[in-house]
Amino acid sequence: MREETFKNKILKGIGVSSGIASGTVYLLERGKIPVIKRTIKAEQTEKEVNRFKNAVKDAIGELNTIKQSIPDDEVRKHSFIIDAHILMLQDDFFSKNVVDVIRRDRINAEWALDMVVSKFMASFETIEDTYFRERAQDLKYIYDRLMRILVKGKTPTIEKKTKAERGIIVAHDLSPADTIQLNLNKISGFVTDVGGRTSHTSIVARALEIPAVVGVGNITSLVKDNDRIIVDGDEGIVIINPTTEVQKEYISKQMRLKNIKKEFLRIAKLKSETKDGFKIKVGANIELIAEMDIVEKYGAQGIGLYRTEYIYLSRKTLPTETEHFHIYKKLAENRNLEYVTIRTLDIGGDKFVSEIEMAKEINPAMGLRAIRLCIKEVDLFKSQLKGILRASAYGPLKILIPMISGLDEIRKTKEILKECMEELEHKKIDFNRDIELGIMIEVPATCMISDILAKEVDFFSIGTNDLIQYTLAIDRINEYVSYLYEPLHPAVLRMIKHVVDVAHTNEIEVAMCGEMAGEALYIPVLIGLGLDELSMNPYSVPKAKKIVRGLEHSYCKDLLFELMKQESHKKAELILRKEMARLFPQDFIMCYEE
């Protein structure tokens, strides 16, 4: 046990769930299970195969027990992630790989499991997108559970750490199953060494509104049970054994945040309209059906982006048309949403399914992915399109196609969509024949020919994450060049303005669903540009509405004109920050030129 006691030690991580929590540390030390590696005799092979198969059964049993033991109805809504883990365990592809390795290499179950999972994990590590890299965590959680069962017989449950006093869980990592088991009457927050904002553990934390900070690095080696700790889920800060003065400061901040949250929930119900009558839709970006409650609570008018990749990544077989239909039907039937925009598959085939043989690519992010893959693998594409079409009979669904770079891709997509409609008509299955079709604007080439493309589709949706990255030739997750990722770069503003102007000339709407849309600082710029819709993390919606309602459209256009005259994005940002601090002193800090 660590003897040194820290005082007021501040650690920085990633704030993944808003709020402030303080309490006693409950240190969850499971430790890494060492992989026992041994070769076996031929006659021992089936014994090891059965050990592995029994471990899979036990793991499924543990997860089902966790699901059944959840007492809170609100928490139970998020048990679908556990269902996904159960499906992965039940998948023959995963089990068959491990069994094949046991038999082929004549090695024990632990070693075979480690080899197979290491191979799968390596494929995820080549993905640039943080969201997709963190899907590998689901596989890691399954691996950890199976390995513990093989070595120790069972996985220890988290509730043994809970005591009478409300406290903070500190762990190397928490799985979604761990998070769902947290007794919210006893646990007020959690901190982990590893993790990211888009992990399913973080998503569950936000859904349950538990303040959480992940990716701290080494907090499990710095704290011990009964240390005092403060978790700031907004700033991503953790303070070990804070002084009395610091505790008082955070108690005051906690009260302020509670009042702000109450105000935001009030604003969430109001219209998104400027003081001089300019209306801009504010929607939400989501990936899971269970997030619908949050979308409604925080006042989004609709779903501006429903990511469908998890439907593929949570399994090792292709989802069927009917499976797609049932998922999208749940979205369509929500009468509190004005629209739901479903983005079709936006990854490469090498990342999710064994049934498609893919060539090795040097740069898969710019290779056979998204619409390029869907056009090549037409049956895969049709299953998803027909699922969307069938669900469109139940509500206002829209189709959004990613990674478009030219006219041929749109026309081919429309041909395939027409075939899907004809096949459904032949079977006398109802659907919305006038369903809107839109494209993502995330490639510079698409911006340059947007006047041609606007004649082919019903709407545009600008994905600023990739658009900025490709335009400025920078990798935003590369620490050496990430500082160049600048939304106010003159080239970026000019491209967005061109796309909006072209779209409106052709009488179609333009949404923005990238991170820029969810950053309150940029809202006057986006209003000035004339965007019709902003789509963002559901929790950002109330603040966005507050900013929109405090602005005038005429002012935003004048401010945009001023910003676009600047030669430097730094100068433009300084002007913008000063203006926002003047207009919204409670939300932005005044900055001064150096």
Q: Which labels suit this protein?
A:
alpha/beta, 24 helices, single chain, TIM Barrel, eight-stranded mixed beta sheet, Enzyme I, Chain A, domain 2, globular, 594 residues, eight-stranded parallel beta barrel, Glucose Oxidase, domain 1
Give structural notes.
- The protein is an alpha/beta fold.
- Among the domains are: 129 residues, 3-Layer(bba) Sandwich (Glucose Oxidase, domain 1), CATH 3.50.30.10; 111 residues, PtsI, HPr-binding domain (Enzyme I, Chain A, domain 2, Orthogonal Bundle), CATH 1.10.274.10; 138 residues, Phosphoenolpyruvate-binding domains (TIM Barrel).
- It is 46% helix and 13% strand.
- The chain contains 24 helices and 16 strands.
- Strands 1-8-7-3-4-5-6-2 form an 8-stranded mixed beta sheet.
- The longest helix is centred in the N-terminal third of the chain and has 24 residues.
- The chain starts with 8 loop residues before the first strand and ends in an 11-residue tail after the last helix.
- About 3% of the residues have low confidence.
**Distance, first to last CA:** 48 Å
CATH architecture of the domain at 302-439: Alpha-Beta Barrel
Number of strands: 16
Beta-strand percent range? 5-15%
CATH homologous superfamily designation of the domain at 302-439: Phosphoenolpyruvate-binding domains
Average pLDDT level: 86
Largest sheet: 8 strands, mixed
Question: Which stretches are low in confidence, meaning pLDDT under 50 for 5 or more residues running?
Answer: 349-354, 358-363, 478-483
Number of helices: 24
Shape: globular
For this structure, the CATH topology of the domain at 302-439 is TIM Barrel
